Structures are given as structure tokens and as C-alpha cells.
Amino acid sequence: MTHPKPKMNQQIPGFSSADIGLIQKNLLHWYNTHHRHLPWRESCDPYRIWVSEVMLQQTQVKTAVPYFLAFVDRFPTLESLARADLEKVLKSWEGLGYYARARNLHKAAQQVVQHMDGRIPHRFSDFKALPGVGDYIASAVMSMAFNQVHAVVDANVKRVLARLLCLDIPVNQSSAHTRFKAVADTLVDRTDPGSFNQALMELGALVCTPSAPDCGRCPLAHPCLALAGCQVSRYPLRLKAKKIPCHHISTGIVIKAGRVLVTRRKLDGLLGGLWEFPGGKRKNKESAEDACIREIKEETGLDVRIVSFLTHVRHAYTHFKIEMDIFYCDYISGDVVLDGPIDHKWIAPENIHRLAFPTANRKFIPLIDRSVISRKQT
Ligand code: SF4
What we know:
elongated, 7 strands, Endonuclease III, domain 1, binds iron/sulfur cluster, alpha+beta, 378 residues, Nucleoside Triphosphate Pyrophosphohydrolase, 2 domains
């Protein structure tokens, strides 16, 4: 496989070609001596790099490491992932959040196996056309696995570039990615783009951190414009974030003959494919108990009565947060007729851990008292 010959770097206002060359050289030298030894950096296997980059979107390195090791142990090859049941994939992802990442990775693996002979495509546009592969993942995998010249832009890169070049681009503005990408493309090293991309991200993670950047140890201190102008604390710029809404949720642990009811969410959308205890949003002025009974009826067709309160859980998603009241409920009557969920199970409490649940449910699952579930219902 041949790749286009690397082009020369374009100019950045205020920076000469020699400055850009120095940035590349100093950054790569620093990376070679200071980078963390992370499991996905031990090989150039595009599958492992792909999995790691999918996990690292929205997840910190220290959280991703054990998930990555367990995931590639369970699904060591693209073929094994493609063959796996989606539920097993989601179980391996349980707790990482943003489950669309896992569903898309699974779907993409199946497409590669079915339509591309099981080989991850080398062409940027082919790879980017796979489910869940956006500009970031495509640039990361193509540069790190195949040494292609594509700059990677994540939150760390944006922060470093904003300070290095005093860029007046708010990092949370919708057009920010494209604008930072254009800048990163002018800086990326043409001969070792994969290492350069990792180096810039690593610098943001270890040195040019959000608060208290360690400029004294930074390989880019010269020619960092923010440092030279004593403006490090001004960058990166950020638009004022909107206040995120809070939803009040009532959830029921519906008990019938020593088992509890769990339902499975639709495959698309937030937390798609995961199992949960039935419930939903409280209406205006409705009590938490009434909302629990109503939601269970609407979602599953069952009539239940509240037995007791279990606990209150708070959880924050990216665009909203929830406050959840959880109740033990006794089944009274009805057959399960689902409206919303795609599946249900009556399971023994000791088997709950076998299914993949959202983090908000996992916060109260350990508190479930088996004696309440096994007691004789009246
Ligand atoms: S000198 Fe300081 S502000 Fe500039 S890139 Fe390095 S760590 Fe960031």
C-alpha cells in the first residue's frame, strides 16, 4: 500500500517554517522520553488502536485502561468482535457510558468482516464511512496505524493549540473543531504523524493541563505565544455553558414470586440496548410514588403497588442530569405489554449482575435487599 507523498507544512501567521520544524522536533523528542506506557501503544494493530480511540472519546485514560484490557481479552480480534452477541459487547462496556460507541464499533466490525474481507480499510474516506467513525477516530487510526498525514483534534489538542498560538476560538463553539483541525493540519509532522498526534494529546494530558500547566517543563515553551504574553490563564476561550436541566425520575423494582422485572431499552438512542428497571419522568405536581405506578403501567402494562422506598440516586449525563427515586413495588395484575422497551425479563436478584445496566441503575443495584424480594407477597 502506498500513500501520498507528505506535503510541506503550510504557514501559520507569526510562525516561520523553522518554528514549525522546531515545534515538531521538540515535541517528538519530549514524547519519546516522557510518554506513558499504555497498553494500546504496545503495537500498531489497527484494531487495538481503533478500540482504544473509541474508548478514549469521552473517557479518561485511567478509566479506559482496565476496560481496554478486558475488552481485547474478550474480543482479541476484529472477527471475534463481529461474531459476538451485542449484549456481550454492551456488558463489556458497562459503566463506560456513551453506549452508542460500543454499538457502532460492533456494527462497524461486522461491516468490515462482511464487506471488506475483515481488513480495516486504509483509505480515510472508506474508514470514516463506517458506523461511529468520525473525523477524530479516522484521523487517529489512519495516522497511528498506517502513518497517514491526518491531524487529530481532541480537547487536549485544542487547549495546547489555543495557548501555543493564542487562538481566539472558543473551544466549545460548534465550528471549533473545523477551525482547530485546520490549524492542527498545518502543524502535524509529515514523516511521523501518528507519534506527533499522540505527542500533542499527551502534552495536553500531562503538561499543558487545564489548570496549572507546567510551562517550566514544556517542550513548546519557546515559541508558546500565551506564555510569552503572560496570557496562559486566558486560553482556551470558552463560551458560557448553558445550565443543564434536571429530570425527576421514578423507578420501580417490580417484584413477582421472588423475581424482579427488568426491561431493555431500544437499540438506538441514549443507553440503547441496555437493561434497566422500569420507570420514567415525573409529571408536574405528581408525587414520586404516583409517577412510579403510572410509568410502570404505561411502559409495561402492569398494575403495581408501592411497597417501600429504596433510595434516591443522582446522576449527570452530558446534556442533563437526573434525580431518581427508587421504590420496591409488588406486582398486582396484568400481562407484560411493552410500550417503549424492546424486551423484558423476570430475573432472580442473583442474576442481575449478568445484564448490562446504565450507571444510574448500577448506583442502586447493590442496595437491593434480597429479603424484600424473596418475602411472601400479600
Ligand atoms: S508553554 Fe505552557 S501554555 Fe504554552 S503550550 Fe506549554 S504548557 Fe501550554
